[in-house]
Amino acid sequence: MEQATGSPWLEGNDLVTLPNGEAFFPAMLREVQSARKSITLETFAFVEAPVTRSFSRALAERARAGVAVKLILDAVGSAKAGEENLRLMRKAGVDLRFYHPLNLLRPKDSNNRTHRKILVVDGRVAFTGGAGFAHAWRGNAGSRGEWRDTQYEIRGPAVRFVQEAFCENWFEVTGESLRGDPYFPSLAPVGAKTVQVVADDPWDHEAPIAQGYIAAINGARRSLVLQQSYFVPNRTMRELLLRAAVRGVRVEVIVPDEGIDSKPTRQASQNHWKELLEAGVRIYQYERSMMHGKLLVADERLAIVGSANFDDRSFFINDEINLHVDSVDFSREQLEMFAHDRALCREITLDNLSAVLEPWYKRFFAGLIASQL
Q: Quick check: is 292 catalytic?
């Protein structure tokens, strides 16, 4: 894994799994409100909503109290952040920057979005996962309007590397290098979990996040479970999953149902379901709400969580961040969460596949743009 990703394994970390907004928003807001030195926040979606206003007010209050608050919002994903929220934070002293505003003269930059989900407080506690800030992430995935997602709270030496990922993009958008104790305090071991922090962007031609998935799938000998909101495996990833199934690995995948927020993504994904099912891969569609999680667990030991989807946009176009966790206990916790979600799914089989497939022409045209979804 170190060779594949270029990231070191870090011992002595503690991770807390926070399923759904009713768990992760209070935990994140509590840490923001307790900040004494610095807050760094980077996200794709910061959209006007009650929860977004709560965080805007908390960030503004901390900035007025003298905390260094640095905020990176993706210019596309956060286009509807709300002028009142932006004005409040800027007036209070929050240093707020938009990542890659659309520019017709720089199409490659405009296509590159930051999809990272990073919150670091005082350089000592970090959060990452799949969630942004919008009304859809509220609640406990109890209805169609409440998305199913997970964030993770991190303490220990791995926090430094999450902070480094933020600082890379902060330097890109401002030219300012963030250093010193407010951002990088000394971090003692606080737990028993071994973690890799893998950050990726399109300028890194080694594609470390994709390489991490490849290493995990290739290394699996007993089981692979994936929970992916945008599951559009390219040819390489499909071949690896097929080989895993053929060599006897139990492969299970949870995907969203027809309520997905990106219809072309589901249509492109469906182009490959028959092939996967025929090889023995088991596919389930989550039917309670929009499933937005990102999870892979290999052999009940290695877990991969974070912001990256299982598609070419996350592998090669967007900026992303994942955590690799080598821990039987942590993996068991993720598998229990997976089993709970699977119980709310409909299994897709060769017998019922035709009933759930989108029309062929929609799948055909979605396939043409699969690398951009």
A: yes
d(CA 201, CA 209): 9
Contacts of 252 (CB under 8 A, 6+ apart): 223, 224, 225, 226, 281, 282, 283, 284, 338, 342
The pTM assigned to this predicted structure is 0.96
Looking at the predicted structure, is the pLDDT value of residue 43 above 80?
Answer: yes
For residue 105, pLDDT over 90 is answered with: no
Tell me: the pLDDT tens digits for 170-194? 999 999 999 999 999 999 999 999 9
Distances (CA, A) of 346 to 129, 144, 323: 25, 16, 29
The answer to whether residue 14 is catalytic is: no
Closest to 322 measured CA to CA, from 296, 359, 355, 351 = 296
| From 70, 74, 100, 117, active-site residue | 117
CATH topology of domain 198-372: Endonuclease; Chain A (3.30.870)
Q: Indicate the fold that domain 14-190 takes in CATH.
A: Endonuclease; Chain A (3.30.870)
Given the residues 70, 100, 115, 193, the one annotated as active site: 115
Active site annotation includes 115: yes
Active-site position among 70, 100, 193, 294: 294
Q: What's the gap between Cα 159 and its chain centre?
A: 16
Annotation says 117 is catalytic: yes
Q: Taking Cα atoms as reference points, which of 198, 202, 208, 167 lies closest to residue 42?
A: 167
pLDDT in tens, 49-76: 999 999 999 999 999 999 999 999 999 9
Enumerate the CATH 3.30.870.10 domain ranges in the chain, comma separated. Answer: 14-190, 198-372
